[in-house]
Amino acid sequence: MSYAEIGVTTNFSFLRGASHPQDYMHQAGAFRLDAIGIADVNTLAGVVRAYKELGNPDIAHKPKLLVGARLVFADGTPDILAYPKDRAAYGRMCQLLSRGKLRAEKGECLLRLSDLVEFSAGQLLVVMPPRRFSSGDLAQVLDALKRSRAEGVWLAAACLYRGDDARLLARLRRIADTVRCPLIATNDVLYHDPGRRALQDVLTCIREKTSIDKVGRKLEANAERHLKSSAEMSRLFSNHREALEETRRFAAQISFSLGDLKYQYPDEPVPPGRTAQQHLEYLTWAGTYEYFPDGIDETTRKNLHKELALIAELNYAHYFLTVHDIVHFAKAKDILCQGRGSAANSAVCFVLGITAVNPAEIDLLFERFISKERLEPPDIDVDFEHERREEVMQYVYERYGRHRAAIIATVIHYRPRSAIRDVGKALGLSEDVTAALADTVWGSWGEGYTQQQFEQAGLDPSSPVIARAVALATELIGFPRHLSQHVGGYVLTQDRLDSYVPIGNAAMDGRTFIEWDKDDVDALRMMKVDVLALGMLTCIRKCLDLIALHKGERHTLAEIKGEDDDEVYKMLSRGESLGVFQVESRAQMNMLPRLRPRTFYDLVIEVAIVRPGPIQGDMVHPYLRRRNGQETVTYPSPSPAHGPADELEQILGRTLGVPLFQEQAMRIAMTAAEFSSEEANGLRRAMATFRHVGTIHKFEEMMVGRMIARGYDPAFAKNCFEQIKGFGSYGFPESHAASFAKLVYVSSWIKHVHPDAFACGLLNSQPMGFYAPAQIVRDARENGVEVLPVDVSFSFWDNTLELPTSPASRHRALRIGFRQIDGFKRLDEKELKQRGEDDWSERIVAARLRRPFQSLEDFARDTRLPKRALLLLADADAFRSLGLDRRAALWAVRRLPDDVPLPLFVAAAAREQPDEAARPLPAMALSEHVVADYQSIRLSVKGHPMQFLRALFAREGGAVLPRRDRTRRQAASEMRLASCWCASGPAPPRARCS
Amino acid sequence: MPVAALGVDDRIVRGLNRAGLKTIGDVAARLPAELAARFGADFVFALQQALGEADAPISPRKPVPDYMAEKRFAEPVMTQDAIAAALASLAQVLVTAMERHGKGGRVFEASFFRTDGSVRAIAVEAGQPVTRANIVGRLFAERLEALADPLDPGFGFDLVRLSALRTVSVVDVQHGFDTAENESEDVGHLIDRLAARIGRRRIVRYVPQATHIPEYADLAVPAQGRMAVAQDWPAPIRDEAPSRPLRLFGRPERIEVTADFPDGPPAQFRWRSRLYVIRRCEGPERIAMEWWRDRRLPRPPDDAFARAHPPQPETEIVNIDGSVLTRDYFRIEDRTGARFWLYREGIHVREVMTFRWFLHGLFA
After folding, report:
1. Residues of A in contact with B19 (CB under 8 A)
2. Do the beta carbons of residue A104 and residue A73 sit within 8 Å?
3. A155: three-class secondary structure by DSSP
4. What pTM does this model have?
5. ipTM score of the complex?
6. Are the C-beta atoms of A799 and A814 separated by less than 8 Å?
7. Do the beta carbons of residue B126 and residue B139 sit within 8 Å?
């Protein structure tokens, strides 16, 4: 006799359930259960995963999935399993959970029985009797529920081997008979297999914040709360068969499936009287006039027609319109933005202004990214200036309303480090051992732990305690730990969102987010729009503003484009990319002179090649050799019996036969290893999630094996797969690389043409990128920009440009601003209000506009800055224009009274300071000034720290070579390197040679 | 010497260094007024101290004395009675002094100074803070009486000192007429007296342990000072027979059982060569062993029978993965109405293929 388990708790009931939703689906399939009901504590976060797993071909017998929740109440009501009967009831349940979550802190849910009664229509409710209960109370709850609009009310009975099971069942039977509601069997499941008992015990310890020695009776006494087979359940319920049969009747009453969630696009972006497709076509052709003022060429016209037809066929017009709507808002507000993602590099997106990359220029084909088979919604991520993204987010809320727009969740999983740390704590290991264990796995992702790592850490992996901790931690890796809000993914709906999915509070005030993450949303084919923040766009915006202000030129992203081989590419080929987007890292700087980018597409490759994927797959050197003509371009091919020899040429032609992009690797899998589209989707999913779940190895055998079978070189097959694994952690598809390459070119162009504005904008966008202000300033000076020190008479909060002191200079001079001074904080508006004072730098600027400063006393009186600010300014050597160097200024500032005096007394106070006999302090050496500069503003325009040490090193013997004297350096047979490292700033990637 | 040698605040040191004044000599060369205006008078004082121009006074302190009372005797006392009387009066003084500060004593020490110069110190401990003089006296009386090495007055004591070594704050409680409350306090005093007499390790009580394993569910600990934990035992559930037997065997005894295979209830069993036919049975209560412990050794037998009949050494059956087997407990009533607690060891298939049965305790 078969039954349906309705009381399953997955690990989305955090620190309670000890199995993944997927595990349950496999186990239920193996047991050939009729149905399985997932009911997590006040959440629906895990159900989509279970739903998706049903598509896994490994599950031969697919049980019916019942979607529900275990309602845990704050008012002492026993737990109730609630299962919606149909779509309408499901919506009510989401609203019920949303209500409970919105009135509680992040991650909590506060429900009362009255709430359930209110939303009870269409719900199947199962009351779970607590361990100890009074029959009267239980009957009362059942009665109350029976009087509600609920579809049906059941009383759950479980045989958990607690000694009194038979008596308990008889007692429940009596209660059920009195209130006339059926008894229903469940095992109140916590894990899919009894082997998970230890892990569940550990979870209990983590939850109770205690260790296994102390947790005591809070643990389950045995391992019986696993998913049981029908045979075992019927043995347990041999005297109450009707309770077991009831489970099947229960399951049969539920018609709701997650597939019933018919997603509807919001229709805001579509004006009345037009269909979405019509409107999109209208906007597209209108856009061509803006972006191709001289008329469009035939290829672009053809591409647009083709893309529009595909969009119409797949019904994606709404999606493009929604993204366009948001981008349009940003453009109107003058917020820079740039789209990326699979659909972004299309001609349609270009003329809609979503991306600044004209796909015709680099020959990116839309169909390559949007395929009919994939049936996934298109994916466009839009990056905005990070300082102004909030405006865009507010716009989305305003346009669609908070009841229809919400941020999606990110599931925070246990990673090797966090897993071993929590398990170690739960097992009562000492802090030292736990820390040592956690340190061994630094940087390794999801591969588990290796014996060697432990030996290196001085731990004995064969010790039972360590072995146990490692085994449990390995099981724990990939468990969800909590939900957090996604950085910027929105889901938008036409009708109220809380009838699709529960919405809860985020940690941030006034933010709400849904319970599902992006994979869940994708699986249900709901629309998601990514509104992301990119620091480089802020920087570019600042640079463009400076250029407009000082040079009167206005530029947009789309319009800045170069010729092949122009000066910008030459600059990059020399490796001069400090501060440039994406290609400024040491590795990239190394790669640039070797790759020598000459065209835009070379930049696309440059961006993609220095990534874990190609590096891990050993694709970098072959590519470079082929590019430099040291190796002939060949394409691996199958043996003739298995297919055309040029099958890979189509895929790899643009990258000289070396797979560099994520989708190339995928297409190899489909072509060379003959993956079906279903298998390819599986591989793609595994790639995206293999960090969490180790399913990728299955695909490894499949792909490498099939490629070898078809006559491919085993080494090549292996490398292709290694690369896929690399992409898994940091995927970089071609379309993303193209969007980023655009920003690389734009920032390089600014750096080359306007190094003054570039340095200024970059400094004003700090912290960002790889380099410290000192290095940015030095780079600017090397490019002929004059840098002027921070000074109270000239500086503003931001770094600014001013006329250079020598008229010969081509560029404006860069004036260091107050923001570079460590500790000279800008107060945000809230703080300003609280303290009732103005921002420091604003006070300085306002005061000097009224009257230029004459002396330090003058300055202190006019600005009424606190002494701390004066000290910081003096220490930054900002009083030079008042005739005081750092030492003199500090000495004078220290003498000023401690607190800001009331204005009335200021004049008096100033006079009361008796004149001191002028006894000069010892003069400050230049070297001291430079060191103090670094301490205060992390850069110095007075000198380089090394120049003071050179003489010292020369005495040590040997010649000191200037930095750029590479030839002599190479000629020297023996060499000692001296380096100095400014520790006050963020450490540069490597100590620099001098 | 560098400025840092002055031992002043780091900020001042940095400030002076920035000003180019790097040695104490540099600093001392400036005018005191100049320095005071910038670094405060305290700094100038510190500088003057370093230069020997100002004093740094030292004020010696002794640790705060505890409560103490002593009595000198013009005529050395020798008799028990006189000593007891002296202690009683000292206790009165001490307790009055402590009462003024709302303190009660947990550890008292009496020091007896003999005329020939030797000193004997004797300490008593109380489970709860003592605030009454007669109790102090009584504790010492018990202790003195029970001393293995009795107090030898020699030529008499000329000084007796009573001190409270450890005191705790007490809140005076208004006693009601509730007998239980008074009783519990009396029990506390009784424990103190017994402990003073026969040693605190010998007076034990059982405290509950948070574990599902029956034989580890209690632990004997010294009773002194543990009155408060008495409530920790799970309260019996109304209308529910106890689930644990009155008498738990120190070591479960092997029995032979006839039962339904694989996990049905037992029908009859043979214990110490006698056959018991089961009339009523409830269970199983399944208790899995604690996987995180390396197999615990069974507790040494503490009842007479088990000591008299040491079990035959048997090879212990453990699970394939080395863990100890799960037990299924049954509460049993035989035909005569006697009730037993027995268990089957191991879960069929998951752990073992054949079982062993044990009797673990008797209800009545």
Report:
1. 887, 890-891, 921
2. no
3. strand
4. 0.76
5. 0.73
6. yes
7. yes
